[in-house]
Amino acid sequence: MDILTLNPRHIWAVWYRNYLVWRKLIVASMLGNFGDPFLYLLGLGYGLGMYIGEMGGIPYMAYLASGILCSSAMNTATFEGLYSAFTRMNHQGTWEGMLATPVRVQEVVAGEIVWAASKSLISGTAILLVAGILGGVQDWSTAWMAVPVIMLIGLAFAGPALVICAIAPSYDFFMYYFTLVVTPMFLFCGVFYPVDALPEFVQWFAQVLPLTHAVQLIRPLLTELPLVNPLLHISVLLAYALVGYAIAANLARKKLIR
Amino acid sequence: MQTNLSGDSDSNVVVRARDVRKFFAEREVVCGLNFDVPQGICFGILGPNGAGKTTLMRMLVGLSPVSSGEYSLFGQDVADAALHHRIGVVPQQDNLDPDFSVFKNLMVYANYFSIDKDTAQKRAYELLEFASLSARANDGVMSLSGGMRRRLMIARSLVNDPDLVVLDEPTTGLDPQARHLIWQRLRSLKTRGKTLILTTHYMEEAAELCDDIMVLDHGKILDRGTPRELINRHVEPEVVAIRGLNTEADTKLLCADLEVRFEQVGDTWFCYMQDARSLVARCAEDASLTFIHRPASLEDVFLKLTGRDLREEA
Ligand SMILES: Nc1ncnc2c1ncn2[C@@H]1O[C@H](COP(=O)(O)OP(=O)(O)O)[C@@H](O)[C@H]1O
Ligand SMILES: [Mg+2]
């Protein structure tokens, strides 16, 4: 298997192509990155926070900000790895064009994953700043460490997204992934309330989902809550990224190199 | 680094195929082909739709695995990714980047070859000149005509200064002016010492460009040679194409006592012969017939070799 044969120069070339397209639309893109979380935090953090007061021992705004940061990193990488990558793979022939050059299919997939994660990094960092302004960050001495963690979270969601992208027959297929995977994670992985509020079997289930681990890493970094088992969380996220990459690279090869 | 697959290293041979086969599921679409392509020529793969031309090309550039046999490029197995530095590919379907300008398309593509920015820029300007697209450098590719897009595809395939350029139906769907401009550019590539391999189902294109032609159908080689050789080998020198004849009997009657070979394609009868003067005289007397008298061409070879049945998409 060639999935370990990766030339960083090639991965960068794939990444850079996507970056150049993004740069053309930077204003609209940044507006979404700052605007959406701002509204979320304002609406839910202040509005709901007024009634709720504290959650898990910290102000609801701080609780929610770290959750929204994670779910937004998830959504950004997922959208990029599904819709945008699918267009490049199937409709624009972008991948096929790259495969006629020294760039290999696993490098295309790796480049796409790193790019999708980079978009998470951009949107996650934007939320970190917005959260800081709105009082969602309690401890800046550790909050800055969230930045590399956001990249890792992006990778953990980009890997599986690329798998779905490679098996999807059409855009419609992505609805299954959102309804069955992304939305449940959004609701049950500790973004809005602690996972231990859920029935026990749901808690078990939540423990295997990447968003749970993302939240458990990020929340302590932004707030005064203690960081528990960081290596476990990092390992789970890394595993999603790497296994996702390996499967996606194989599927993409089967699909494109026929 | 240069390992030769087979003992006899012929540095003059760019492509070498030995019993190359391709199966899609159970179906064999390339059936044990043997051929060599020498360096510096324009090699044409001629065949109707579905003959296996694209499959043969895709295998050559590593986009499709070879099911069995030995297929090599510059002495390396076609699966060797390093070969991509030496080849340029123009696929049947345009895959220009719609998000970028004409110039950016070349720059971004050069980056896939790890070409540094300064070199890429210099080459991109030269290639735009070559493709007569300098004036459109900053326009989006979506605003280009079909002919311009093809020229940009060809320019893009040259960013890595390849030794071999592989083109799959480079002028399909273009108007005659656009086609002639592309032919002229491809000829100039050949004079610069590049080896060209192109597929086509336009006989005129093959005759204009190719030094050597392989006629392919149903995954098998029907014949190979220069355009002149193929014509001499397979068809009589003169053709009269006649319309207005209703039945084979009518045609036979018209050609009575003459040594003629017929082919019927649609409503047209093609009459092949050594000397067509007497048939032309007979046709001229019958006002109900329209006819054209011309020397035999590759088209006639093609019709004879691949038969007259209509193909998919025909
Ligand atoms: N990916 C594929 N899966 C199954 N069959 C294919 C595939 N690609 C091509 N074929 C079949 O192989 C045959 C040769 O196709 P192709 O090489 O595209 O022919 P050409 O380029 O000469 O028109 C056709 O019958 C086509 O339907
Ligand atoms: Mg074809």
Q: Segments of chain B where pLDDT lies below 50 for 5+ residues?
A: 1-8
The CATH architecture term of the largest domain in chain B is 3-Layer(aba) Sandwich
Looking across the biggest beta sheet of chain B, what order are the strands in?
6-7-8-3-9-10
CATH topology of the largest domain in chain B: Rossmann fold
Please estimate the helix content of chain A. over 70%
Structural class of chain B, please?
alpha/beta
Annotate the secondary structure layout.
The complex is a heterodimer of chains A (258) and B (314).
Chain A: H1 8-24, H2 26-52, E1 54-55, E2 58-59, H3 60-91, H4 94-99, H5 105-133, H6 140-143, H7 146-167, H8 174-188, H9 200-207, H10 210-222, H11 230-256
Antiparallel strand pairs in A: 1-2
Helix pairs in contact in A: 1-5, 2-3, 2-5, 3-5, 3-7, 3-8, 3-10, 5-7, 5-11, 7-10, 7-11, 10-11
Chain B: E1 13-24, E2 27-38, E3 42-46, H1 53-60, E4 68-73, E5 76-77, E6 87-90, H2 102-112, H3 117-130, H4 146-157, E7 164-168, H5 176-191, E8 195-200, H6 203-209, E9 212-217, E10 220-225, H7 227-234, E11 238-243, H8 248-254, E12 261-265, E13 268-273, H9 277-285, E14 290-295, H10 298-306
Parallel strand pairs in B: 3-8, 3-9, 6-7, 7-8
Antiparallel strand pairs in B: 1-2, 1-4, 4-5, 9-10, 11-13, 11-14, 12-13
Helix pairs in contact in B: 2-3, 7-10
The structure holds adenosine-5'-diphosphate and magnesium ion.
Describe the structure.
The complex is a heterodimer of chains A (258) and B (314). Chain A has 258 residues and is mostly helical. Chain A has one domain. Helices cover 78% and strands 2% of the residues of chain A. Chain A has helices at residues 8-24, 26-52, 60-91, 94-99, 105-133, 140-143, 146-167, 174-188, 200-207, 210-222, 230-256; strands at 54-55, 58-59. In chain A, strands 1-2 form a two-stranded antiparallel sheet. In chain A, a hairpin with a 2-residue loop joins strand 1 (54-55) and strand 2 (58-59). In chain A, helix 7 packs antiparallel against helix 10 (210-222) and helix 7 (146-167) runs parallel beside helix 11 (230-256). The radius of gyration of chain A is 18 Å and the shape is globular. Chain B is of the alpha/beta class and 314 residues long. Chain B has 2 domains: 10-231, 3-Layer(aba) Sandwich (Rossmann fold); 236-295, Alpha-Beta Plaits (2-Layer Sandwich). A 6-stranded mixed sheet of chain B has the order 6-7-8-3-9-10, sandwiched between helices. In chain B, a hairpin with a 2-residue loop joins strand 4 and strand 5. The longest helix of chain B has 16 residues, at 176-191. Mean pLDDT of chain B is 92; it is low at 1-8. The interface between A and B is medium-sized, with 24 and 29 residues. The structure holds adenosine-5'-diphosphate (ADP) and magnesium ion. Residues 24, 29, 47, 49-55 of chain B line the site of adenosine-5'-diphosphate.
